[in-house]
Amino acid sequence: MTRILLAGATGMIGAMALRLLLTDDRVTQVIAPTRRALAPHPKLSNPLVDSTNLPIDAEWWAADGAICALGTTRAKAGSAAAFRAIDYDYALAIATRVRAGGASRFALTSSLGADARSRLLYPRTKGELEDAIDRLGFPSLTILRPGFLGGDRSEHRPMEAIVGALLRLAGPILPASARISPGATVAAMLVEAAIAGEPGRHVIGAGAIARTAEARR
């Protein structure tokens, strides 16, 4: 029996990871806490939660592994404080509770350039989250640092669509670390790490993600 908790199931990467988890024979149950209800599935437990008031001792925190695919932007969140509340406070709260619930494997979606010492809000927050989760002591911690994420989003982002088109055109001449990180590849790597991650701390950068995507074509 393998129980996986997935945070961020309504986002692009999280939705892809959810589909993979629900069809993976190694997984017996997926716990996906969300604000709004997901489509029902025999393997899915979908507790409805408020990110500012997570239950501390709910039984569904007990899992073998976990995936954090939470993420937003300052523009979408509305302010630097609101961005940090989601990308740091909420993500760390999820990790803390699932570790207390016994999870031994944790897979985190971070970002290219994540650095707790950065002067820039986005990479600094991502770097600080990596460090904080590392201190929780998961026996297996896998951190993915994708570059520009490729895939279909539920919301329209015109500027991202333009950047994505340019990167696809330039892909053959760009170094692997500067190419698009396909969302499907990121999701698959997160799922594998949460189910069968090797002991230790593993950081997978954008270059490795791009090469993995190319090898799977």
CATH superfamily: NAD(P)-binding Rossmann-like Domain
Q: In CATH terms, what is the fold-level topology?
A: Rossmann fold
Overall structural class, as computed from helix and strand content, comes to alpha/beta
Strand order of the largest sheet: 3-2-1-4-5-6-9
CATH class: Alpha Beta
**Major sheet characteristics:** 7 strands, parallel
Cα-atom Rg, whole angstroms?
16 Å
Keywords:
single chain; 217 residues; alpha/beta; Rossmann fold; 7-stranded parallel β-sheet; two-stranded parallel sheet; globular
Protein described:
The chain has a single domain, classed as NAD(P)-binding Rossmann-like Domain (Rossmann fold, 3-Layer(aba) Sandwich). It has helices spanning 12-22, 74-77, 80-100, 121-134, 158-170, 183-196, 206-215; strands at residues 3-7, 29-31, 44-45, 65-68, 105-109, 140-145, 149-150, 181-182, 200-205. The longest helix is centred in the middle third of the chain and has 21 residues, at 80-100. 40% of the residues lie in helices and 16% in strands. The protein is globular. It is built from seven helices and nine strands; from the N terminus they run E-H-E-E-E-H-H-E-H-E-E-H-E-H-E-H. By secondary structure, the protein is an alpha/beta fold.
